[in-house]
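Final report, Chapter 2: Outcomes

The project's central promise was a pipeline that accepts a single protein chain and returns its three-dimensional structure in a standardized token representation, suitable for archiving and comparison. That pipeline is now operational. To close this chapter, we reproduce one record exactly as it appears in the project archive, with the input sequence first and the structure output second.
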Amino acid sequence: MENRKLKNSELERKSLSEFKQAKKTPIIVILDNVRSLNNIGSIFRTADAFLIEKIFLCGITATPPHKDIQKTALGATYTVAWEHAKDVLEVVESLQKQGVLVYSVEQAENATMLTDFQVQKEQKYALIFGNEVKGVQQTVVSAGDGVLEIPQLGSKHSLNIAVSTGVVLWDVFSKMSKE
């Protein structure tokens, strides 16, 4: 059997209005002081791919519209709901009061390896991704409901934030899809 690449017209892409009306995956992404505009754009694009509910852009994280965000987002800043918040801790506390479980994605003591993480049916999650150099702030890690860690076997034990976001969102999305 031959594998023919699909044309863009065959991809059954949602229109903007179809995307806005579609049932969202109960995941919220929180970006804690992310510096790179290209990373922010890539994360928007990944969030679009998995119908993520919302992105919170916190602290120094830049907001759309910006040409460098748009370059990698490819229009996802128009589809994915987002909000800027100065204080990431206020976002964490607010979401927790709404019953959202908040997890930092970080390397930390007592972290749950992503491979061992089990989603709870009907539960909404917020996943925090941090600064490219410093990661998620310790005060934010401490305020959350837990920490998820991506298992890494090589010598660097460091992934780009956009890559980390893609890995974690795919994993949690796929686990939720099985529920």
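Archive annotation: Strands lie at 25-32, 52-58, 82-85, 101-105, 112-113, 125-130, 146-149.
This record, like all others produced under the grant, will remain available to the consortium after the project formally closes.
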